[in-house]
Amino acid sequence: MATQATENITTNSESVQDEKKGPLFKEIDADEAVNEATEIESACMNCFKTGVTRLLLTKIPFFKEVVLMSFKCEFCGFENNEIQSASEIQKKGVHIKLEVKSGSDLNRRVVRSDYTSVKIPEVELEIPSQSQKGEITTVEGIIDRTIRGLSQDQDKRRIEHPDAAAAIDAYIERLNDLKSLKTNFTLELDDISGNSFVENPLAPAHDPNCKTTHFTRSKEQDQLLGLYDANEVQEGEKKILKEDKQLLKPIPEGEWTLEDLHGEVLQFQTLCPECRSPCETNMKLTKIPHFKEVVIMATVCDVCGCKTNEVKSGGGIEDKGTRFEVRVDCKEDLTRDVLKSETCNLLIPELDCEVGPSALGGRFTTVEGILTAMKDQIEGNDVMFQDSTDEAFKNRFKGFIEKFEKILSLEMPATLVLDDPAGNSYVQSLSDTDEPDDKLKVTKYVRSYEQNEELGLNDIKTENYEES
3-state DSSP call for residue 417? Predict the structure, then answer.
């Protein structure tokens, strides 16, 4: 089966990369897919003879890196296709809620990881996480797979357990009603790994029928993914190692002061965000004038040449959220310094374009830099549009990019909105007094319960926290 071949992915992919010295994960290309696939002999789970598993490391536009696996046995004809996420486990889990109202919603592509649970409340359907392997499918495909699973052994069940068979037949009829859209319904995906995805057919515009929220995992969910904190790792080491051979050791108090961190550039090993090759990230603590301390990180990949920079807030979450509205209609407006934190949403009302906090990460740049990064990310992931047979779909995307270029060339005025519930973003004022100028509007607001929940604040106890 395909899953038995995954242990060899790393070894084979590294050898292929050493030979070609190119990105490990490439965009999908029909002409090169056959040449890029890796073939591995593996046992057939049907007849137990030797078959072939083909592995393809690729990227899904507007999503992440994945490993596509296809197994076929030439002896019994058994076939099996699977998908596994090859990207890192995300910092937060993801909850996706899709309102299915039309046939186009049924055709939306869905990426599910092994840790994704699926719910359709209208028919009381729930598919637990880790009960099915990850896959690329559609909303209709999820319902079809459920129907196929329920239909198995129905003939035998009608003879031995007629009442149970009749109840299952009635439930299958309810699922078929969903496929024919006799009523609207809701599809909910919960993925603690954060690696699930539902296609937005209106991209790059905002999707009104789909709401995506991120949540902080519990300790039990982290351990289910194999994630442990330093204390848990040390406790485990004490059971198998001597005290002087611990993998993680605490830094003695006073060895690293705040002044040392300000003057030191730290380095640590990481993976390239584009090709997943090993590289180094440089990190430095610095202070932005009229704002606060931040951590700046820069990565350069020697394999594919990718260069990235990321900024994380060095302080805590502010008491209130902050919303910046910047009017862009002259060259001076493009030069404003902008600090976008990793909790900040970006919005351009004139284009009906909204970018979530995790899309661009945290970065310290200018208004022009933010707009260029938004355009490059959308334009760089347009494989979905170029590969589409829907001409209206491609024309809408082309018109969107043209408007974006007009904004950058100042032919079209626009408003850039930065909405940060954590209050850790910053936009430079061009006035001499450092107060907001005529083209900059700053609004402080009280966060909603949902925003506090996403930031993990609702469960924090700041008073009498030592009490149980």
Answer: strand
Residue that is written with structure tokens 């079809």 in the block: 144
Using DSSP, state whether 203 is helix, strand or coil: coil
Could you tell me which residues come within 8 angstroms of residue 34 by beta carbon, excluding any fewer than 6 positions away? none
Given a cut of 80, is residue 145 above it in pLDDT? Answer: yes
**Number of CB atoms found within 10 A of residue 195's CB:** 26
Strands (E), 192-304: 197-198, 210-215, 266-271, 278-287, 293-300
Per-residue model confidence as pLDDT tens digits over 76-98:
988 888 777 676 778 888 999 99
Contacts of 411 (CB under 8 A, 6+ apart): none
Nearest to 428 by CA among 438, 416, 440: 440
CB atoms within 10 A of CB 316: 10
Picking from 45, 36, 32, 37, the residue whose alpha carbon sits closest to that of residue 2 is 45
Please state, in angstroms and rounded to a whole number, the distance separating the CA atoms of residues 222 and 228: 7
Contact 51, 37 (CB under 8 A): no
Q: Is the pLDDT of residue 228 over 80?
A: no
The pLDDT mean for the chain works out to 79
Helices 391-408, 367-380: inter-axial angle, 10-degree rounding: 160
Residue 80 structure tokens: 């099996």
Q: Is 243 helix (H, G, I), strand (E, B) or coil?
A: helix
Contact yes or no for 110/145 (Cβ under 8 A)? no
pLDDT in tens, 334-363: 999 888 888 888 999 988 888 877 777 788
Give the torsion through C-alpha atoms of 238, 244, 245, 250, to 10 deg.
80
pLDDT tens, residue by residue, 367-412: 998 898 888 877 765 444 444 446 777 777 788 888 888 999 999 9
pTM exceeds 0.85: no
Average pLDDT, integer, range 36-65:
80
For residues 435 and 442, what is the distance between their CA atoms, to the nearest angstrom?
10
Peptide bond into 273 cis (omega under 30): no
